[in-house]
Amino acid sequence: xxxxxxxxxxxxxxxxxAWKTLAxxxxxxxxxxxxxxxxxxxxxxxxxxxxxxxxxMTHAINERDGADEVSLAKAxxxxxxxxxxxxxxxxxxxxxxxxxxxxxxxxxxxxxKGGAAPAPPxxx
Length: 124
Description:
Largest sheet: none
Number of strands: 0
Shape: elongated
Number of helices: 4
Radius of gyration: 34 Å
Mean pLDDT: 92
Low-confidence stretches: none
Helix content: 55-70%
Order of helices and strands: HHHH
Distance between the termini: 71 Å
Structural class: mainly alpha
């Protein structure tokens, strides 16, 4: 399995930092430290783009959640209006079409616990 993007970034930064700090005047792999920095710039640019997109995604999710809160409050008012309307009410097809269970189709909730059956007498 390959290395993680985070460990790749750390490795590139560590190599560049060590090179600039300890041997900035030397060339390795046919490159100077500045040429290496230019060569790895696309990796840094892509990471910056990903960070920006992550921030935009977080912002969009927060906007959606806030809008949903307002929208669901409005939806609750509409449903309450349907329930309270004498031409529709909680037993109407409209109420059911909105995703709710009609009053006439609800179960009562009453349950009767059955007693344990008596044990058969022992055989002798």
